[in-house]
Amino acid sequence: MLPRILVAMIVLVTVGCATTPTDRGQSIFDPEAAWQQQKSELNNLTQWKLAGRIGLRTADSGATANLRWRRTERGDQIYLFGLLGGGKVQLDITDRKVELRDAKGQVFSGTDVTVLLYQVTGWHVPFDSLDGWLRGLPAPGVYDSIEIDEDGKLIRLHQAGWEISYDEFMSVGNLALPKRIHLTAQPKTIDALVSTGHLSGDRLALKIFVEDWQSSLPEQVLSQ
C-alpha cells in the first residue's frame, strides 16, 4: 500500500456563479510542489547543530534534559545534560559504531544508538530516526502517512511505529526548520517495548523544543 499524503488547507467556497474565470496570469499555489522543494532543501542540510530541550513521559514517570546535537560528515555528536540526576551523557555516532560516555566517564559501546541509550540510561529515544524527523523529514525507509500544510511543510507523520507532529517552525536562512515537535509511540511500538521489558505501562511520548538551529558549522568542537 502506498503511503498517504494529506494536505491541510482552508478552502474558501464562493456560492454564486456556476463558474469563476481565472486570470491567465494568476498562478495557483501547489502545496505538493512546495513540499517536494522543501524536501530537496532539507535533504541538502547534511551538516548542522542545534540546541534545545527534550522531555520524555511514560505512564508512570517523566524526565527532561538539555539537548545539544552536532551533525558533520564524520558522524553525530549528541549531548544530554541533566540526565541521570544532573549528569552529562555524550553519544558519538558513526556508520559502524556508537559510543556512550556517562557522567562518571564510563564508556559503553554498541551498534544501535537507541538500544545503547536505553541499556545505560533507561531512556527510550528513537535517535536512529530522529535526525530526519528533527529536520521535518521522514526518516529513510517507508512511512505510513504524512500531512503537509498549505505552505508545503510537514505537520504530521506516521512512521516506524511513531506519530510525529510539528507544532511550530523557525526560519533559518531560507529554510523552515522545526521548533516544537511531539512524538507519540503507537500501540504496536508500546506492545513491542513492553514485551521486551523496555517499557512498563501504555504510554511513551517525547517533546522536543529547539531553541537554536545552525546550518553552517564552525570548525571548533561543539560548545558545551
Describe the protein's architecture and organization:
The protein has about 220 residues and is an alpha+beta fold. The chain has a single domain (about 30-210), classed as Lipoprotein localisation LolA/LolB/LppX (outer membrane lipoprotein receptor (LolB), chain A), CATH 2.50.20.10. The chain has helices at about 30-45, 85, 115-120, 125-135, 185-195; strands at about 5-10, 50-60, 60-70, 75-80, 85-95, 100, 105-110, 145-150, 155-160, 160-170, 175-185, 205-215. A 12-stranded mixed sheet has the order 1-8-9-10-11-12-2-3-4-5-6-7. The longest helix is centred in the first third of the chain and has 13 residues, at about 30-45. The protein is globular and about 55 Å long. Mean pLDDT is about 85; it is low at about 10-25 and about 220-224.
CATH hierarchy class name:
Mainly Beta
The side-by-side strand order for the widest beta sheet comes to: 1-8-9-10-11-12-2-3-4-5-6-7
Helix-strand string: EHEEEHEEEHHEEEEHE
Give the uncertain stretches in residue-range form. Answer: 8-26, 218-224
Oligomer: single chain
Task: Give the key terms.
224 residues; alpha+beta; outer membrane lipoprotein receptor (LolB), chain A; 12-stranded mixed beta sheet; 5 helices; 19% helix
